[in-house]
Amino acid sequence: MDLTAELIALVERTEPDPGPEAGTTEHTAADFALMADAVLAQHDPDHLWVFAYGSLIWNPEFEAVEQRRAVAAGWHRSFCLKLTRWRGTRELPALMLALDRGGICVGIAYRLPAGDRHGQI
Fold first, then answer.
1. Nearest C-alpha neighbor of 103 from the set 119, 86, 82, 80
2. Cα(57)–Cα(38) distance, rounded to whole angstroms?
3. Secondary structure class of 42 (helix, strand, coil)
4. What is residue 30's predicted lDDT score, i.e. its pLDDT?
C-alpha cells in the first residue's frame, strides 16, 4: 500500500479553535513585555541561554552563537502538558512533552547573540 493524498484525507480532521478556556485569556504583547521586565529585574545576565530538549535541538527557530551539551538536573521529559486547542480538544485533550519535576534531562544549551535581551525573552 502506498501513502496517497486520498488516504491522508481520510484521517485528516480540522477542528475549529474554541479560544481560551473559561476564566483564562490569551496574553497580549504588553503582557509579554511585563513578564520580560519581571524576569530581567530578578536576573539580568550578560548572556542568555536557551535549554533545548526536544525539537529545538534539531530545529532551533532562533539565532545562536554557541551551543553546548547541557543537563537539566531535577527535571525530566514527560507527557505532562495538556492541550485543549490545536493538537487536542476540550473533549479529547492531547498530551505534549514538557519538563516535569524530578530526574534529569539531557539536551543542548544555545547561547543567544548579545543584544536585545528583553526582546529575546
1. 80
2. 27
3. helix
4. 96
HSE-up of residue 89 (Cα within 13 Å, Cβ side): 7
All three cell numbers of 64: 545562536
Q: What is the pLDDT of residues 44-71, one digit of tens each?
A: 898 999 999 999 999 998 999 999 999 9
- Strand pairing partners for 28? none
Letter string b/e over residues 71-81, b meaning 16 or more CB atoms within 10 A of that residue's CB: ebeebbbbeee
pTM of the prediction? Answer: 0.75
Contacts of 110 (CB under 8 A, 6+ apart): 49, 50, 52, 56, 60, 62, 64, 66, 67
Residue type at position 34: L
Contact 66, 111 (CB under 8 A): yes
